[in-house]
Amino acid sequence: MASTAQISDIELLNFLGLHVLQKEVDRDSASACYSFRLPAEAIPLLKRLSEAEIATLVGNLGQQCMFQLRPELLACADAPTELAAVLAVARNPRAASGQPRRSQAHTETR
C-alpha cells in the first residue's frame, strides 16, 4: 500500500505558485517578468525545473511562504466596493494601465 505524503498549506501555496510562474514563463517570459515582478535571471531556472524538482525545492523551504500579500489588500478589502479598485490602482500605479511605466530617461530619448 502506497503512503500519501501530507503537505502543509504553505507548501501547497508555494508549489502551486511556482507551477503557475513556470507555466507563465513558458507561455510568455517577458509578460511573466512584468506581471509577477520576476528578475530576468529567474527565467532559466523556472524553465528547467521539473515538477519533482519544484516539489523538492518546496519541501526544502519548509514553512516559509514564498508569496506575500499586497500591502493595500486590507484597505481594499475594508473599503466600499466602488472604492476598492481605486485604492488598488492608487497604491499600485503600474496596475492602472496594465503597461510597464517608462523611465524618465526612456521617454526623453523618444
Task: Reconstruct the topology from this structure.
Elements: H1 9-27, H2 29-36, H3 42-48, H4 51-61, H5 73-78, H6 81-91, H7 94-97, H8 104-108
The beta-strand count equals 0
The shape, in one word, is flat
In terms of DSSP E residues, the strand content is under 5%
Report how far the terminal alpha carbons are from each other.
67 Å
Element order, helices and strands? HHHHHHHH
Tell me the radius of gyration: 18 Å
* Helical content class: 55-70%
Mean pLDDT: 82
Low-confidence stretches: 99-110
- The tally of helices reads 8
**Given the helix and strand composition, which structural class is it?**
mainly alpha
Which sheet architecture does the biggest sheet show? none
Word description of this protein:
This protein is mainly alpha-helical and about 110 residues long. It is built from 8 helices and no strands. The protein has helices at about 10-25, 30-35, 40-50, 50-60, 75-80, 80-90, 95, 105-110. α1 packs across α2 and α1 (about 10-25) crosses α4 (about 50-60). The chain is flat and about 45 Å long.
